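Quick check before the chapter quiz. The format below is the same one you will see on the exam, so make sure you can read both the input and the output lines.
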Amino acid sequence: MAEFKEISPDAPLAQKTLNWIDNRFPLSKLFNEHMAEYYAPKNFNWWYIFGSLALLVLVIQIVTGIFLVMHYKPDANLAFASVEYIMRDVPWGWLIRYMHSTGASAFFIVVYLHMYRGLLYGSYRKPRELIWVFGCGIFLVLMAEAFMGYLLPWGQMSYWGAQVIVNLFSAIPFVGPDLALLIRGDYVVGDATLNRFFSFHVIAVPLVLLGLVVAHIIALHEVGSNNPDGVEIKALKDKKGVPLDGIPFHPYYSVHDIFGVSLFLMVFSAIVFFAPEFGGYFLEFNNFIPADPLVTPLHIAPVWYFTPFYSMLRAITTEMTYVLMLCAVLGGAFAVLKTRLPVLLKGAIAGATVVVIALLYLIDAKFWGVVAMGGAVVILFFLPWLDKSPVKSIRYRPDGVKWLYAVFVINFLILGYLGVLPPSPVGERVSQVGTLFYFGFFLLMPWWTRLGQFKPVPTRVTFTPH
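Here is the expected output.
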């Protein structure tokens, strides 16, 4: 049994209360380990505020979601009317609903920026592989959470968007039709689907999301934060074991984050009060029309944060599968003819290439579109093992890498924009090129990350007070 820590009987009441808690729960110990005595690199820049902003938006979504559930009816005949009731009759209901809908888009904005910062500074490299894997898991679960929540208002785009996405699962060979039936709970999107998605959206998926967030933070605090230089601050410590280039997270970065949170809340509030639909990107205009299974909208598209992946889905046509076959042939030929791999491994690669080509030819392009959409997210999990660069941070990589990263961002934005537009021949070609570039960026990473002239990495972090 642990010994109780005693303090002076004349100590202030607050100190006595804290001592009483500490003797029964390690409150001060947790605060010190994760805040006051958690040493972060002193050269953090503004790219490092998006993690705390993501945590803030998660809290906003949970709190507003609890109040929305108090009045929402997960019934196909009542769902749309209950949302209208929240908007019109519940005191401050319109504010809660707009905070939740704007929060969904804000979540993806800060998460995309947070992930891009990790890409810029190599935050996924050793020893932070698990932090990145947990982060990608959060992103994947967040997409599932957003998709299921998108159905709940039971408007036209909610209904038909879910109809299109769920039907994609039927393209999976052998198990597809049964899987789609299991997800829908019926032969069409209806009341059973709404109840399934509601239960997952408010209970199951948030629990998984919270678990991954806790794992992400624990893994981060175990190995320490990365920094713009990619220098490990734990390598140089003073006699007390404090990193020479580290400063306590609290109060230095807690105040830094509070300032960032203040700026974010100003922008967030401006959108909530003055542009909650954001021109139809945050809330589509068709979703203010009740769901009608007999009237199909002229153009069905997901919310903006799904559109890059939706573009990749639409890019995989029968013609595109022939291009993918050619890519498989070129990749297999390069591995067999131009590398020094063992003969047995070369034979396995040649056999795998033949199998891939056969599958591309035999299975419908719709299935490969689903594979491309899912693979675009799954490939992110393997980033720590694809990047073979001798340095972490983009600061010390060749200048050409900066241009490549810029093209990657522009390509992703173009794919997102094309996903909003109706299908067109020109848009199809551009999205196909963009899809090839997206996957090429990652699959060719073991090769291009080694190219060019690298700059010397300093032994200490570079820091300019501001």
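If your answer matched, good. The first strand starts at residue 39 and ends at 41.
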